[in-house]
Amino acid sequence: MRATETAPVAVPSFGDAASAWLRGRAPRPALVSAVLVFTLSSVRAYGKARSGIDNAVVVRAARALLNGGSPYADKRFLYPPGAVFAALPQMLFSERVLFYAVPVVTGALVAVGGVLALRVFGVRADSRLAVALAVGTALFLPFQSLVFLGNWTAASVVAFPAALLLARDGRWCAAGAVVGAAVALKPMLVPLFLLFLLARQWRALACALGLPAVISLLGAAALPRPGLFFTRTLPFLLHGQDAYARPYDASWPAVLPRLGVPHPLAFALAAVAGTAVLYFAWLRWRCGGDPALRLVECAALLMLAAFVVSRPAFLNYALVVVPSLAVSLVVREATARSVWFWVPLVPQLGGVPWPGVDSAQRHVFRDVVMFGGLAVVLGLTAWRGRGRGEGVVTESSYGYSLYSEVGARPDPEAR
After folding, report:
1. What pLDDT, on a 0 to 100 scale, did the predictor assign at position 411?
2. Which sign, positive or negative, has the C-alpha torsion 21, 22, 25, 27?
3. What are phi and psi of 25, to 5 degrees?
4. Strand, coil or helix: what is 374?
């Protein structure tokens, strides 16, 4: 460029102005109101005769261990051995205490995950965006399902943004340890192993693989009849569980047969769709761009690929990826700035009637639209950005920060 030429000046768009406003500190009444709405949504499970149903399965497994039995004698206990020992502290409390405590603790874990998602993009926890995230989460049906069931997906809701925050700051091994610890409790974040592979972070991948393996082996050694996991639990999982859980499964191999598609064809279609989403995840990684956004969108595509294929894929799994994706709208090129990103989420707002698919067992058709719609929108964004070229990737985990590599900085007001 000649000395007389000047570089083009980027004109702030409406989206940029809105992003700056969302990053700003929210008024105190708005913060208090958001916390109140979120808390009330968390404790709405108290109005049900039964709550914490999924957590009770793990507690029952821990009780079986203390009584000298095998947790895997219960076909509904589908967690790794480490989850049994993680549930042992709950033995100190009565069922009545757990009834009131589990929804609150589950809601608190989701709140922590939301704060971590905000921090991935350098947004303060008392911002206007935090208020919007809290209220939106409170109205989000996957959140209401999660707190009612007390499902251990809540651990992954925290671990997903925590791992991405660490990876953004170049602490890849720590990110691998977080993912590994979450997998040791519930193997939901296994698709993130591919994120470490894409980033060529071999030590982080070793941590993510090794930690759950060690914990599971040590846990299995302390369990009576651990072989039941392979003879009873694993076949149960591979067959998509049973008629009790199948109506709530939003994976393609479970949903398409309900629409008349033969099972082999349904599985083949799911495999093709899952492979396509994995391709878009790889493409999104190569597109580069804002480091935090790159991590979040690529990781979300990896998770959505699993939701399409693997069985089961339940409603509350959406809370793993949606908060981080929603918060990403503060970045200029984020998919969340497109109205099409929000369209698949509208059917999941509480209080919006959807005749014909409002029942618990038919709600799955809304869920498959949500997972599939998010995958399509993210995939199209990756496809349109494929010409940007590959971003900076390193093979070393020492002193490297994706966040600092391109000079991105968090919100100067953030704390």
Report:
1. 45
2. positive
3. -70, 135
4. helix
